[in-house]
Amino acid sequence: MTSPTAEVVTVTVDRSKCQGYGQCCFEADDVFHLDEDGKLVYIPESTAGRRADIERAADVCPMQAITVA
What percent of the chain clears pLDDT 70, i.e. is strictly above it? Predict the structure, then answer.
């Protein structure tokens, strides 16, 4: 049996919607950050233990550009 923390959470950002507000960075700064040009950079896979923070990041996105699976 696989440990729940070993499961993978997949993060997708719709670049056509993302406006670089960076609200997601406050909820999961180890997954999302803005580069020096203000463009969102993110890690597309994380552990299930980070799911709650990643889902909060998706919820606070004003453009609803983040999908979590």
Answer: 91
What residue has token string 């463009």?
39
**Of the candidates 61, 66, 52, 65, the residue with the CA atom closest to the CA atom of residue 5:** 52
Domains of the chain: 4-68 (3.30.70.20)
Q: Taking a C-beta distance cutoff of 8 angstroms, is the pair 60, 24 a contact? A: yes
**DSSP assignments along 19-55, one per residue:** ----HHHHH-TTTEEE-TTS-EEE-SEEEGGGHHHHH
pTM of structure:
0.87
Q: Which amino acid type is present at position 10?
A: T
